[in-house]
Sequence to fold (336 residues):
Amino acid sequence: MNLFQIQGGFGIDHLKQTQRPTPSPGPGQVLVQVAAASLNYRDVMTVKGQYNPKQPLPLVPLSDGAGTVRAVGPGVTRVKEGDRVMSLFSQRWLSGEPSAEARSSTLGGPLDGMLSEWICLDQEGVVMTPSHLSDEEAATLPCAAVTAWNALIAKGHLKTGDTVLLEGTGGVSIFALQFAKLSGAKTIITSSSDEKLERARSLGADMTVNYKAEPDWSKRVKEMTGGEGADHIMEVGGAGTLAASLGCVALGGTISVIGVLSGTAAQVDIRSILMKGVRVQGIFVGPRDIFEAMNRAVTLHQLRPVVGRVFPFAEAPEALRYLESGAHFGKVVIRM
Ligand SMILES: NC(=O)c1ccc[n+]([C@@H]2O[C@H](COP(=O)([O-])OP(=O)(O)OC[C@H]3O[C@@H](n4cnc5c(N)ncnc54)[C@H](OP(=O)(O)O)[C@@H]3O)[C@@H](O)[C@H]2O)c1
Fold:
């Protein structure tokens, strides 16, 4: 079988296509023929050695993929041959808060991931694909969508009528936009591109701000909300945006700390947290039961993920470079 692995050092130039024998499922395992995989910003960091510089190599990257079960090992009862499934980001995180085991069983580092034509996964580490989705659409769900659902719905307890602020138009933010709309929330989205903001409007974004043209976007968000601020903020920007988010969060609002797109070390005035009674919650993707709860909503509302661009398997390094450039809207997918 064909796969890509990071070998001989970190860097996108070290992502090489190679072959390994197709594995056979052991007890409790399923053999999945992967049809599509999707990229997360984490994958760029992993390939470049920024996510875990101590990650042993070679490593097959990517946590997210979808395909079909082609064989099952002894004792498998959860799925059967022919079932369409998606990978679970943390293979051994089925419910509850993140544990050490949840953190150490993530695909695409430390475990070999989905940038491979075939993979054997534990039967507990796959989730059934909603039947209305193509494999390319389903491949986008395991990390970005679950993170957005966990932040806004499972842990965020979003209510109809709340205002949600979304930063940028990448994978997590666009899923969060879709989930906020499902929930009857008002949405404000930022982007560096007016063209992307137009696309976000076509997905239902109520208000938009170009954060490049308006560096003081926090003030603009306050104005747009009549001085009240946003009830929920999906903080994907990280160090460079947290202070601005604290400036435009509503009294008693929630900031979901998710991303590190502009760095990890932020200096903030903690008075803006305590005086406003803000809840700052860290989000680490989510467990299987949250993934499955999200899928029920995705199915009920026939929600379709936004696939911005699809690359062929052989162009996986170009796909990573494309994601890194920030030119994309929504999700970037690799077709096997
Ligand atoms: N905690 C978790 O469990 C978890 C899960 C998934 C992702 N993440 C993290 O969340 C972040 C987003 O992930 P992703 O996969 O959605 O990334 P992505 O698809 O690569 O999104 C990148 C987009 O974010 C926007 N952006 C970049 N810098 C920004 C800034 N300083 N302020 C506002 N927007 C900015 C840009 O949008 P425009 O082009 O529209 O400007 C860019 O295209 C990453 O740091 C990732 O590691 C964390």
Observations:
- The pocket of NAP is lined by residues 40-42, 143-144, 147, 167-172, 190-193, 196, 211, 236-237, 240-241, 258-262, 283-285, 323, 326 (CB under 6 Å).
